Amino acid sequence: MTNTADAYDLIPRDALFGNPTKAQGRISPDGKYLSWLAPKDGVLNIWMAPRDNLDAAKAMTSAADRPIRQHFWSPDSSSLLYIQDKGGDENFLLYSINVTSGVETNLTPFENTRVDIVGGSETIRDKILIGLNNRDPQFHDVHLLDLNTGELELVYENNSYAGFMADDTLTLRMAMRQNEAGGTDYFRVEGGAVEEAAFETTAMEDSLTTSPAGYTTDGSTLYWLDSRGRNTAALYAQDTASGEKTLVAENDKADIGGTIRNNKTGVVEAYSANYLKTEWTAIDPEIKASLDWLGSQLDGEFGVASRTDDDRTWIVWNDPLTAPSGSYIYDRAAKTLTPFYITRPELEGAPLQPMQPVEITSRDGLILPSYLTLPPGSDSDASGRPDAAVPMVLLVHGGPWARDDYGFSSGVQWLANRGYAVLQVNFRGSTGFGKDFINAGNKEWGLSMHDDLIDATDWAIAEGITTADQVAIMGGSYGGYATLAGLTFTPEKFACGVDIVGPSNLETLLATIPPYWAPMVKIFHERMGDPSTEEGLALLKAASPLYKANEITKPLLILQGANDPRVKQSESDQIVGAMKDAGVPVTYVLYPDEGHGFAKPTNNIAYTAITENFLAECLGGRSEAIGDTVGKSTAQILEGAQHVVGLEAALAK
Predict the structure, then answer these.
(1) Percent of the chain clearing pLDDT 90 (strictly above)
(2) Element (H or E) spanning 501, and its range?
């Protein structure tokens, strides 16, 4: 079969999945320094330079194994902060680097502990509130942390609550706890004590679309994202003295999502809603002028990544989709955009493909907001449909209480470049589209949630995008579960499947959740099935692909991180064992130093090398040879190397 993508360059895996040149640009609150992530000796570290002299850049950290993936500035600009776990175990600790001395400090030097940021302040610049579960793994005690001395002061010993919220004085104002219905109760904190009666409560139906969104600096207003009494979450401002709420913003198709707030007052100045694309609406005239001007200067999507205290300078990211993303330094008063960096300059000129938002109707009439990306050269008249049917990968997002978004994705561009149409479906249960859409997925794992994926596949076939025998299903986390469900519950629908850290047994999945999820476990029971009841357990077992492993007839590739705290290795081990017992072939790849997904570029590149050669055999797409990618990674091929072209040869090197 001739692939329409053959006339276009094969984008090297390294260019898509290797380290970025620079990423996550930030500016210090005082405006003096720029910071970013960039490789040092092949590992992502934090770099810093004076704002007016990027040539003086220096690495501030020395991570030698696991990349640093998230960093931020202390409010007083005296230190850079980052969180890091061990081998993907998600026990994140907080680290600080003094900007002047370069001294690095572990601010939370505890074992088997996960830090949560509870609150920061506009007026108290050298301290923050953090939660630590070092005393009890289920509950985070609240501590006041001095960012410069490292001193920790216990503020509240927690034996009951799932989370807290503080005001600008770093005083606890609210505690949250799941109620028996699977919703959330919100309690005022007065004088360091939590009141007995909740002042706000949500039912389970609103639990994923209603939450407090922070106080203004003076504490007089509490913002809420709230779906109670409506479908989509609207933004409300609540007077903390009277309790009266005022509607600030709403959207009939999507929940209100992000906000831009005044640096000094905390008042909302702009808000966003994301249906098929993110749309910002400004309330403040000066913010509107800035957003309008940026929109006139930049192609594609953009957003504000970092701001100075005086709000004169913004770091703005820009995603043109068909060119590599970049970052700019925006001087609002001067109306200048100064290039900061291009994230992956090696992608300049590469055949990156546009993403098309599409609406697909499910069998019961639900509109599924989705995204379609076609292979290069397949759509000569730019109609949004290929000239002839092409192989397709149904790429299913994780969560499931999450969503796919419009924008550049290395994984999507990789698959499209290899010759596949890529269809991403926001199936029922996905977030961002109102509570009715989420709740339509309650207790529908493997049922109507899976039907949505089948309906989307049938839509693509009917539209001439692909043919019935050329569709693979692939995804991570819930997407991995959907892959296993696809190959067990509908074994003839897909040509093959790629399961990345997906659960196979919903009963054992719920029995092994991280301890700090225990205060929220009721929501899992209400939305999936309660294993403590006969009916709930039966529902979970019926939706578990493990029990139908012998039904699998198509090639399956499973990839798993050994340290995954959410979907334990046993989830993959179980179904691999069941398939072996049934005499069903499977390829199983384990990463001993990864968790819920793969952080190290060498491991990511090995995953893509194995996967694209697996897909090429199934669907006839393009691929680079596996080469030495597996040898450079920590990947262990526990089963079925013979089922992936070139894998045995790569292991023999």
Answers:
(1) 97
(2) none
Cβ(93)–Cβ(110) under 8 Å?
yes
In angstroms, rounded to a whole number, what is the distance separating the alpha carbons of residues 572 and 433?
31
pLDDT reported for residue 504: 98
CA atoms within 13 A on the CB side of 445: 33
Which position among 572, 596, 623, 633 bears the catalytic label? 596
For every residue of 160-205, which 3-state class applies, written as one string?
CCCEEEECCCCCEEEEEEECCCCCEEEEEEECCEECCCCCEECCHH
Nearest Cα to Cα of residue 247 among 216, 276, 225, 275:
225
Model confidence over 16-29: pLDDT tens digits? 999 999 999 999 99
Question: What is the SS3 assignment for 626?
Answer: coil
Per-residue pLDDT of 227-249, as tens digits, reads 999 999 999 999 999 999 999 99
| Per-residue tokens: 116 | 């949560």
**Which residues does residue 318 pair with via DSSP β-bridges, in sequence order?**
302, 326
CA-wise closest residue to 171 among 114, 224, 121: 121
Q: What's the pLDDT tens digit per position in 332-357?
A: 999 999 999 999 999 999 999 999 99
Question: What is the reported pLDDT for 148?
Answer: 93
Tell how far CA 518 is from the center of its chain: 21
Q: Looking at 327, 564, 572, 623, which residue is catalytic? A: 564
**Vertex 590: Cα angle to 585 and 592 (nearest 5):** 160
Above 70 in pLDDT, residue 1? Answer: no
Buried b (16+ CB within 10 A) or exposed e, 213-246: bbbbbebebbbbbbbbebbbbbbbbbebeeeebe
- Type of residue at 488: T
Give Cα 53 to chain centroid, integer Å.
Answer: 33
Whether pLDDT at 2 is above 70: no
Residue 635 to residues 51, 402, 615: CA-CA distances in angstroms?
41, 28, 18
3-state secondary structure of 61: coil
Residue 653: pLDDT band (50, 70, 90) is confident
Q: Where are the beta strands (DSSP E) in 262-417?
A: 268-274, 278-282, 301-307, 313-319, 326-331, 336-342, 355-361, 367-373, 392-396
CA distance 38 to 19: 8
Q: To the nearest 10°, the Cα dihedral for 374, 375, 378, 382?
A: 40
What is the amino acid identity at position 485? A
Catalytic residue among 79, 227, 327, 477: 477
The b-or-e profile of 183-212 (16+ CB within 10 A means b, else e) is bbbbbbbeeeebeeebebbbebbbbbbbbb
Give the separation between CA 547 and CA 334, rounded to whole angstroms. 64
Residues 560 and 574 sit within 8 Å (Cβ to Cβ):
no
Peptide bond into 39 cis (omega under 30): no
Q: Determine if residue 293 is left, alpha or beta; phi over 0 gives left, psi from -120 to 50 gives alpha, anything else beta.
A: alpha
d(CA 315, CA 326): 11
Rg of the chain, C-alpha, whole Å = 25
Cα–Cα distance for residue pair 423/425, rounded to 1 Å: 6
Under the banding of pLDDT at 50, 70 and 90, the label for residue 519 is confident
Active site residue 564: yes
pLDDT at 66 over 50: yes
Whether 5 shows a pLDDT value over 80: the answer reads no
